[in-house]
Write a structure and sequence with these properties.
The structure is a single chain. By secondary structure, this protein is α/β, with parallel strands linked by helices. The chain has a single domain, classed as TIM Barrel, CATH 3.20.20. The protein contains 14 helices and 14 strands. The strands form four sheets. An eight-stranded parallel β-barrel has the order 1-2-3-4-5-6-7-9, surrounded by four helices. Strands 8-11 form a two-stranded antiparallel ribbon. A two-stranded antiparallel sheet has the order 10-12. Helix 8 packs antiparallel against helix 14. The longest helix has 19 residues. It is globular, with a radius of gyration of 21 Å. The C terminus is likely disordered.
Length: 384
């Protein structure tokens, strides 16, 4: 099995990851670039081009490959302007020169551009491209994609996974530990906001609001079953994905602490995790305020992480068998399986959750009323 593992650019990650039983490829990106990525500038761990180049050399010396992210869903048409198109080519030339092994992209045109002018680079389609059908997988492969990271929402659709595997020859990647809402209504807006906020050409200097993460966190805390509906795959259930033809397991969490990245990668390499599944899932911490808005009283604040849930991983043995025959896309509203499982395996402090929910609701009220643009939000004692 191959693992695609995030790096926060900490050199101390390289040695333990190189010792895992699974073959490891690292991935990351600079905080900002003209293309942008699936993470906002403030969330991307700060590093510089020279440091990235040295880091990739160290990774190669340890036997690890490196995937560079270019996965913003839009470049605001900069790719079609002569001046910025030249800078795009210069950026790709730099990525090629530092000997990245592959690039992950969302924009179809970038696949064709890279394959034509930088054939040394392997091209991987991002999960942000939402490859969720045989037709879409075949079209991306026809553009030259060497690898496709599938839409996370089909992680448990075994019939569809098998059909995609039978339809294409390229490598298939499954993102295993995201705690995103199933069929999240904020997802497209979230990726678009992150992409623009991480672009060096952003006219608002990376202005960004964590509205999607605030809502996602709120929904998961108000309806605990959403934490089960989320399309993560346990380390113990990776075999089921491999049976469907998945080649690579991807772990998310470029901003996670080094210890958490190592623990998560180790769990998926060993195909076993003892304890709280929540510890190896990528649960984002919402921020209260606007980043880089230039408006008085709207600066960003990081609040405490959401109340920690305890998801008993051992109690989930056999959990995935249900999805071998269930059509969640059309039957979710008629089914209480995830609610039943949530009641059995999730533990949490109700008072702590209620207090955090009240905080998030108050801030969302400040957003919908536009009060945030005039006064600071009431963020109380959760502020750091």
């Amino acid at each position: 099995m191959q693992l695609l593992v995030p790096t926060n650019w900490d050199p101390s990650l390289i040695a333990p990851l190189s010792r895992l039983e699974a073959s490891v490829e690292l991935y990351s990106v600079l905080p900002t670039s003209m293309i942008g990525s699936g993470g906002s500038g403030p969330d991307n761990v700060y590093t510089m081009g020279e440091q990235a180049e040295e880091y990739i050399k160290r990774a190669h010396s340890a036997g690890l490959q490196f995937d560079y992210l270019l996965n913003a869903p839009s470049m605001s048409n900069m790719e079609w302007n002569e001046k910025t198109h030249r800078e795009l080519l210069e950026h790709l030339e730099w990525i090629n020169s530092i000997e990245a092994d592959s690039v992950t992209v969302t924009i179809p045109y970038l696949i064709e551009l890279v394959k034509r002018q930088f054939p040394h680079l392997k091209t991987r389609v991002s999960t942000i491209a939402h490859v969720d059908s045989v037709a879409r997988a075949k079209l991306f492969e026809s553009l030259g994609a060497d690898s496709i990271t599938l839409d996370i929402h089909i992680n448990r659709d075994f019939k569809l996974l098998k059909a995609i595997r039978n339809a294409v020859n390229c490598e298939l990647v499954l993102l295993a530990n995201n705690l995103c809402l199933y069929k999240c209504p904020y997802e497209y807006y979230h990726h678009d906001s992150l992409g623009h906020a991480s672009q060096s050409y952003n006219p608002l200097n990376g202005c960004y609001m964590d509205y999607p993460v605030i809502h996602c966190t709120l929904d998961r805390l108000c309806d605990i079953s959403q934490n089960i509906k989320s399309r993560w795959v346990r380390p113990e259930d990776i075999y089921a994905c491999e049976e469907m033809g998945i080649d690579v397991i991807k772990i998310s969490g470029r901003s996670m602490p080094t210890e958490q990245i190592v623990n998560t990668a180790t769990a998926y390499s060993l195909r076993h995790y003892q304890g709280n599944l929540y510890d190896i899932l990528n649960a984002l911490t919402p921020k209260i305020g606007l980043v880089n808005s230039g408006l008085p009283g709207t600066q960003n604040h990081t609040i405490a992480p959401p109340p920690k849930l305890y998801i008993d991983n051992q109690a989930l043995e056999g959990f995935m068998d249900f999805f071998r025959k269930q059509n969640c896309l059309s039957q979710c509203h008629q089914c209480n399986y995830c609610q039943k499982i949530a009641n059995e395996v999730i533990q949490f402090d109700r008072n702590e959750v209620d207090e955090y929910v009240a905080l998030l609701k108050e801030f969302l009220d400040n957003l919908s009323s536009s009060r945030i643009f005039k006064v600071k939000a009431g963020v109380r004692n959760y502020l750091h």
